[in-house]
Amino acid sequence: MTRINLTVDGQSVADDVEPRMLLVQYLREKLGKTGTVIGCDTSNCGACTVHLNGRSVKSCNVLAVQADGGEVTTIEGLAGEDGALHPVQEAFRECHGLQCGFCTPGMIMQTVDLLAENPSPSEEAIRLGLEGNLCRCTGYHNIVRAVQHAAGTTEGASA
User: How do residues 54-108 score in pLDDT, each as one tens digit?
Assistant: First the structure.
C-alpha cells in the first residue's frame, strides 16, 4: 500500500491505496464520486475526464499515486456549494447537450478546460477540443451548441 494525500473537490483526503489503483477507481470506489464514469478503461472515450491540477485528464489513464499531492476536481465539484450548476453544466442542460448522460460528465469537464484555454472557440475549435470524448447518442450537434452557449457565442437553448 502507498499513502497518498490530495485535495478532491476542495476537501483534503489521505488514503492508503494499491500502487496500481487507477484514479477513476479511487474516486468512485474510495470516495464515492460516481459522477466520474468508467466508460472504456482504455482512455478512448473520455467519460472519466476530471481535472488534475487544473487540467483535464482521463482518470482511467492516471494512477491514484500519480495524483499524490495534487488537486482533483470531479463533475460533483463543479457545482456551487449551494447546489447551483456551473455555467457549463447549465449550458448542457439548456441546450440538450446530452441524451443518455453517460458521456456528459467527461464532456463537461473537457469543455471547462477548453473554455479556460479558449474562451471564444470557433465550432471547429470546439470539435477539435472535444475529439477525445465520445458520445454515442447525440451526434454532437447539441453538445457543440452547449459549448457555444457556455462561451456566450450563440443564443443557446432556442431550437
Answer: 999 999 999 999 999 999 999 999 998 898 999 999 999 999 998 898 999 999 9
For the record, the C-alpha cell of 106 comes out as 467527461
Separation of alpha carbons 10 and 76, rounded Å: 11
The reported pLDDT for the residue numbered 158 is 45
The CATH number corresponding to 87-151 among 2.30.40.10, 3.40.50.720, 1.10.150.120, 3.40.50.1820 equals 1.10.150.120
> Residue 120 in contact with residue 151, Cβ under 8 Å?
yes
Q: Which amino acid is at 105?
A: P
Question: Alpha-carbon distance 34 to 136, whole Å?
Answer: 20
Instruction: For residues 88 and 81, give the distance between their C-alpha atoms in angstroms, rounded to a whole number.
Output: 16
**Residue 21 grid cell:** 489503483
153 CB-near residues (< 8 Å, 6+ apart): 120, 121
CATH classification code of 2-78: 3.10.20.30
| 65: phi then psi, degrees, rounded to nearest 5 | -65, -25
